[in-house]
Design goal:
Elements: H1 5-26, H2 28-83, H3 87-168, H4 173-186, E1 191-195, E2 198-199, H5 208-216, E3 221-222, E4 229-231
Parallel strand pairs: 1-4
Antiparallel strand pairs: 1-2, 3-4
Helix pairs in contact: 1-3, 2-3
This protein binds zinc ion (ZN).
């Protein structure tokens, strides 16, 4: 390998490391948002379960109010019936009384159904309460983990950038400029090994002359196709 290349390979490794750390770092906000969304979702479900229970409860109370009203009407009809003088009047009230009694029965059946439904909904509320509690604990744990990850990545990045600055000083300046120009174009892997007689970056077959130059390592060789700096791995 050409003697100028090892420090450049170290530099490239540091650039890769910085790239990995940065891409991990930019994913943190997404991960944080997911944690909060999961928690919000659990809270929303609990709220829905509570609302369903409350509206059933309200409906039941309404029905009970209606039953009371019907019973008052029934008592009124029964009192009127006792005082009825004419037979037709008596018969008409009997008919009304029967009808109101039927309505009371229907309403009472509905109240029973609503009570059963309320029991089921109560179980649902308890379940959602448990899940929301779990989600809260989970969110607290994940927030802590993400905060730890953020501070770990921040210090790793600062260290890697510091290492990079130091390493940069050890790379031959014209080679460094060439490397940086390549990095800007290809983003990564500006210096690549020769693989099976081809460029380790673009995989094109190298000319015999380039291959020999890379192997001899007396001067720098680069891929005729993509321009990447080549080396032969020992
Ligand atoms: Zn190439």
């Amino acid at each position: 390998m050409h003697p100028d290349l090892p420090p450049l390979l170290d530099l490239q490794e540091l650039d890769h490391k910085i790239g990995r750390l940065r891409s991990e770092f930019v994913q943190l906000p997404v991960a944080k948002r997911r944690v909060e969304e999961a928690f919000e979702e659990a809270k929303r479900k609990l709220q829905e379960a509570k609302q369903a229970q409350q509206s059933t409860e309200l409906l039941r109370r309404q029905k009970e109010g209606e039953i009371e009203e019907l019973r008052r009407r029934l008592a009124r009809y029964q009192a009127q019936q006792m005082q009825a003088r004419k037979n037709e009047e008596y018969q008409a009230l009997s008919h009304e009384i029967l009808q109101v009694k039927g309505e009371v029965e229907r309403e009472e059946d509905e109240v029973l159904l609503l009570l059963e439904k309320a029991d089921d909904l109560q179980i649902g509320v308890k379940q959602e309460e448990r899940k929301a509690e779990e989600a809260e604990g989970d969110a607290r744990q994940k927030r802590r983990e993400l905060a730890e990850k953020e501070s770990r990545l921040t210090s790793q990045l600062a260290q890697a950038e510091l290492d990079r600055e130091r390493k940069k000083g050890t790379v031959e300046p014209t080679l460094l400029a060439r490397y940086q120009k390549l990095v800007q174009g290809h983003r990564e892997n500006a210096i690549v090994p020769v693989v099976h007689g081809g460029c380790g970056g673009c995989h094109m077959k190298l000319t015999r002359q380039t291959l020999l130059r890379a192997e001899a390592a007396a001067e720098l060789a680069s891929c005729e196709n993509c321009g990447r700096i080549l080396f032969v791995a020992q």
